[in-house]
Structures are given as structure tokens and as C-alpha cells.
Specification:
The protein is of the alpha/beta class. It has a single domain, classed as NAD(P)-binding Rossmann-like Domain (Rossmann fold, 3-Layer(aba) Sandwich), CATH 3.40.50.720. The protein has a 7-stranded parallel beta sheet with strand order 3-2-1-4-5-6-7, sandwiched between helices. α2 links the parallel β1 and β2. The longest helix has 29 residues.
């Protein structure tokens, strides 16, 4: 377990009374978040396309004394998403939405990709996140509160060769998060997105299966799987999801936070206020026009004006 995770320990009452809907809850990061939320007192509603998978996770959580339900749903199908949200609302409300469902999609040079497989990755990673947010947000607006946690990934802030569908879809999730955060800010809803780091889950099986087609990522995943070197413990993004879902992180919204790199475990109220007031942790081009508030702070107004000429 990493020192960063230890700096934000489990609090059995942090999410007490909250209802959390988690997509991709049958394995990997989604399952780890479900376990974390349950340990902190939340009722979790798990969703994935495979009913048996999420039923097994829900059964393990219930055996530990947690409250957990499981419903199969395809997040790319608007009708199934609506049905999933309706069933989750049988618990009375949805306080937290976590969109953890995702795939790599086709791996290899972009011009060699099957168009349908490429589109399918965007459907699950981006369109699915959109559909889930679209279905849940109206309920949160009526309540005047809520927290949404989305997932970014490699390629969102820098090119990720041979993973074009994944990179494009995850960059889109970040901008969707930032945009939605501004639209719902006045309703007391916070929306943030996590860059989880390199996690050794079954998602990485696709990288290993692709072999040399995966390019530079292949060696990294092989090393992580063999020795753990360079990987991020799955508990770290799960802890960050808890931080972003609970009141500890308020009023933080519209931010992309790296689980292994941003030092969020030590963010206090002052630091959160500082981050919230700056154009940090967002998808912005770094120039005087897009980060003008920051430029105005570090150079005199006359100098800033000269930059625009």
C-alpha cells in the first residue's frame, strides 16, 4: 500500500447514508471503489454488462455487512441507462455517480483500426459517461446536491500512440467533466475526473494480448505485472474517488486530478480553495490567452498586455 493511500485512511462514517451508483463495478477500479465506499458507510448500486460479475461483487460486500445491489446495464443504451437509474432510485436517491466503465478499444496504428471497434471505444468511454450523467443529473438538481466522479486515463493530456480511440475518448471525458461542472455548479453538484495512473487490472490483458502493436506501453505493463514497478496500487484511485465524493473536497469541481501524482491526500481547505480559483488541473492550452488569470498574477499588467500584441 502506498504512502499516499495511507495519508487518506478509510473512515467508516465518511459516506454514511449516501447512495452511490457505480458503473464498471464488477471488476478493476470500479470494484475497488465499491469496496471503499461500502467500508465508508455508503449503499452501493453496481452496474456492468455482466450480471453474474456484479452479483458476485455485491454478494461479497453484503457478506461484510454492506448494503449493495447489482443491476446489469449497457451504458451505451439510453433505455438501459434510464432503467438502471430508475432502479437505483428505489433506494430513495442517488448522491454519488461514479462512471468507471471503460475499455481500451483497438490497439495499433490509427490507420489500421477497424472503424466500428474504434467507435465502440468512444461509445463506452465517452458516450456512456454522457448518458449516465444525463440520466442522473436531473435528480441531483431536484435535491440541490450531488457528486459525480468520472475517469480519464492515458492520452487525455498527452498523446498515447497506438491507443487513439482510448486517448480521444478519455480526453473528451475530461472536457465533458469541465463543461458539465460549470452547468451544474449553481445546483450544488460537483463533477470531477480522475486520472488513475497505471493500474494492473484485467484491462491490461488487452495490452499484453496486442504485443508489439501496443508500442511503448507494452514494456511498461509487462514490468508492472512482473514486478509492480511503475504501477499505482488500485487503492489510490479508490481513495481519491472517496475524497472527491465526500464533503472533504468541497467546493472542488471541474478538475482533473491525478491519483498518483497530484498530492491530493494533503489538500486542506486552503489548498482546495487555491486550486479551485486557478486554471490548474484542466485541459487548457498553456498560453497567455487561455490561462490569463495565471498570467496576470505572475507578470505585471503592462507585460501581460505586451504578450497579446
Amino acid at each position: 500500500m502506498s504512502p499516499g493511500f495511507a495519508a487518506y485512511p478509510i473512515d467508516s462514517g465518511r459516506l454514511k447514508g449516501n447512495i452511490a451508483l457505480i458503473t464498471g463495478g464488477g471488476r478493476g477500479i470500479g470494484e475497488a471503489i465499491a469496496a471503499r465506499f461500502s467500508a465508508e458507510g455508503a449503499t452501493v448500486v453496481l452496474a456492468s454488462r455482466t450480471q453474474s460479475e456484479i452479483e458476485q461483487v455485491a454478494a461479497r460486500l453484503r457478506a461484510s455487512g454492506a448494503k449493495a445491489d447489482a443491476f446489469a446495464a449497457n451504458v451505451t443504451d439510453p433505455a438501459q441507462v434510464a432503467s438502471l437509474v430508475e432502479r437505483a432510485l428505489r433506494h430513495g436517491r442517488i448522491d454519488i455517480l461514479v462512471n468507471a466503465a471503460g475499455i481500451y478499444g483497438p490497439i495499433g496504428p490509427m490507420w489500421e483500426q477497424d472503424p466500428e471497434a474504434w467507435k465502440a471505444a468512444l461509445d463506452i468511454n465517452t458516450y456512456g459517461t454522457f448518458l449516465m450523467c444525463r440520466a442522473v443529473v436531473p435528480h441531483m438538481i431536484r435535491r440541490g446536491s450531488g457528486a459525480i466522479v468520472n475517469f480519464s486515463g492515458g492520452g487525455a493530456t498527452a498523446p498515447l500512440p497506438r491507443f487513439s480511440a482510448y486517448a480521444v475518448s478519455k480526453a473528451a471525458v475530461v472536457r465533458l467533466t469541465e463543461t458539465l461542472a460549470e452547468e451544474v455548479r449553481e445546483h450544488g453538484i460537483r463533477v470531477n475526473v480522475i486520472a488513475p495512473g497505471a493500474i494492473d487490472t484485467t484491462l491490461q490483458d488487452a495490452v499484453l494480448a496486442a504485443g508489439e502493436r501496443a508500442g511503448r506501453l507494452l514494456e511498461m505493463i509487462q514490468r508492472i505485472r512482473k514486478t509492480g514497478e511503475g504501477g499505482t496500487p488500485i487503492e489510490v484511485p479508490a481513495a481519491l474517488a472517496s475524497f472527491l465524493a465526500c464533503g472533504d473536497s468541497a467546493p472542488l469541481t471541474g478538475k482533473l486530478v491525478s491519483a498518483p501524482h497530484d498530492g491530493w491526500q494533503k489538500w486542506d481547505r486552503e489548498r482546495i480553495a487555491d486550486v479551485s480559483a486557478k486554471p490548474w488541473f484542466t485541459l487548457r492550452r498553456l498560453d497567455p490567452f487561455t490561462v490569463k488569470p495565471l498570467v496576470d498574477e505572475v507578470q505585471p499588467k503592462t507585460q501581460a498586455a505586451d504578450t497579446k500584441k
